[in-house]
Design a protein that fits this description.
512 residues; mainly beta; Neuraminidase; seven-stranded antiparallel beta sheet; five-stranded antiparallel beta sheet; 2% helix; 49% strand
């Protein structure tokens, strides 16, 4: 499941050249733009929502992934309304098409597709014939494919670049896969790879590894940290149990995520899930005795419940929906979850004592991360309905009334355990608190107070990486010194295309 949430990146990223080299295209979180190489003001071409790759063709069209959960679109390089170019195959469970590259001549485009889980090492390298509008799979198992002039498609898989012989005239793969470069930086959950090849044979790549190095720490309201779980791993979504005794946390290892329960009193972590698919978004039941989570099994995503001590079998709560649990009401009768459809996140409420889900916040905006208030009367959530992501509160009964809590952007909101304040992360990563009052059924929010900043990542994969414990302290994911976000070595290889010819001539022909 690809459920990428709010991005906190506001600057330009993913640059690409026009065919004549006179323009540089790029994206921000919300816009696709271009700027002259010689300098000048950027020109907005169209709206995007955390785009995942773009390529500029010789016909003056730009092909791009509009959002993390979209198919491919194209738009004139002069700007305009984007035109859908591919369609996600919902029957096959496809969740994204991304990282396009238009082939020489402009008749076809390479791209990466993914079905099911958020591990792009299991993605497909596909080709779209632009005239016929027909797709074909060239290789299964990889991401971020790029055609090079020696007649190969180079793609990324688990830190290694592989080369696949390819005929651009027939659009056919013509040989076996061979590894060509190891220790290349990349990211398995988004599918991006840090390399580029020029037409005259120069390879540039980042040697940073795709494994994030983070730890879990306690942080007080002044920002002072103390140790919690020091083992360097890729820690993701986390939540402290209602009784404050344990922590459920999602840990990603080699592109697959599982849930762990950490006993905070004994300082002992225990693995809870062992499935082949991704288990993620673990949240607690009000009695702290069971955990709801999202799991991918047999190519389908469902919400399950399991005893927090690992005993018994998983119980299927909701099936066949691209959904992730967000919060259980304090009385244990309702579950609010996020469902991702075509790049839009909608909030639904599922009665746990039987009955069909009902929409709570369903529309064109991306809503996510809902949390019941401690008294169960209010639901706090994030939405980009007004442009930037902000934190909002609505009555849990879905009656009229809505209050914006954050200002100038706010993501991953949660309640303090006494219900007297709301916490969120600002777009620059700070932890922010807002006092609230709910006297007599009315709701009001007070002043906004910035508590602290630090090396605590805020990412766009839909996973809040902090929570508030009953004693008021925070559990935070802290970025380590060897984090994937700090690449230290850029390598440049001259004459690299000649090396590819020699490698393929040797006939290694291995496949990942």
């Amino acid at each position: 499941m690809v459920a990428e949430g709010p991005s906190t990146s506001t600057g330009p990223y993913q640059p690409f050249f026009s065919p004549d080299g006179q323009w540089v295209g790029f994206v921000t979180r919300t816009e696709l733009k271009k700027v002259p190489v010689r300098g000048g003001s950027p020109i907005t071409l169209c709206a995007v929502d955390r785009s995942r790759g773009a390529s500029w063709g010789p016909d003056g069209q730009i092909i791009f992934a509009r959002s993390p959960d979209s198919a491919l679109f194209r738009v004139p390089a002069s700007g305009g309304e984007p035109e859908p170019l591919t369609t996600l195959d919902e029957r096959a469970g496809e969740t994204t098409h991304r990282w396009p590259q238009i082939l020489p001549g402009g008749k076809a485009v390479l791209f990466t597709s993914l079905a099911g889980k958020d591990d792009f090492n299991s993605g497909k390298i596909e080709l779209l014939d632009l005239a016929a509008r027909k797709r074909k799979v060239l290789h299964k198992g990889g991401t971020h494919a790029r055609y090079v002039p020696t007649g190969q498609i180079v793609y990324f898989n688990r830190g290694t670049l592989f080369a696949l012989p390819f005929d651009p005239a027939t659009f056919e793969a013509t040989g076996s896969v061979s590894p060509v470069i190891e220790e290349v930086g990349g990211e398995g959950t988004e599918g991006g790879a840090q390399f580029s090849v020029s037409d005259d044979g120069i390879l540039v790549y980042d040697t940073g590894q795709s494994r994030a190095s983070t730890t879990l720490v306690w942080v007080d309201r002044q920002g002072k940290t103390s140790s919690l779980w020091d083992v360097p791993q890729d820690y993701r979504f986390l939540e402290v149990s209602p009784d404050g005794s344990r922590l459920v946390v999602e840990v990603d290892a080699e592109g697959n995520s599982d849930l762990w329960v950490h006993d905070l009193k004994r300082d002992v972590p225990t693995r809870l899930t062992f499935g082949k698919g991704a288990e993620s978004f673990g949240i607690w039941a009000p009695d702290s005795q069971s955990i709801y989570f999202s799991s991918e099994r047999d190519g389908k995503t469902g919400i399950y419940r399991r005893a927090s001590d690992g005993s018994g079998e998983d119980e299927l709560i909701l099936k066949d929906r691209d959904a992730s649990p967000s919060s259980v009401s304090p009385d244990g009768r309702s579950l609010v979850f996020t469902e991702v459809i075509g790049g839009s996140g909608n909030l639904w409420i599922l009665p746990l004592d039987g009955g069909d889900p009902r929409p709570f916040a369903a529309g064109p905006a991306f809503e996510y991360g809902a949390r019941y208030s401690p008294d169960g009367r209010w639901i706090l959530y994030g939405s980009n309905e007004s442009g930037p992501f902000e934190a909002y509160v609505r009555p849990a009964s879905a009656e009229r009334g809505k209050w914006q809590i954050s200002r100038n952007g706010g993501v991953y909101p949660c309640w303090s355990r006494d219900g007297r304040s709301i916490i969120y992360r600002s777009l620059d990563g700070a932890v922010v608190s807002v006092d609230v009052e709910t006297v007599g059924g009315a709701f009001s929010a007070g002043r906004i107070e910035t508590l602290f900043k630090g090396p605590f990542p805020v990412t766009d994969d839909g996973r809040n990486r902090y929570d508030v414990a009953p004693d008021g302290r925070f559990v935070m994911v802290m970025r380590g010194e060897e984090s994937v976000e700090t690449h230290e070595h850029i390598k440049i290889v001259l004459g690299w295309l000649d090396e590819i010819r020699e490698t393929l001539a040797a006939g290694s022909g291995t496949s990942p």
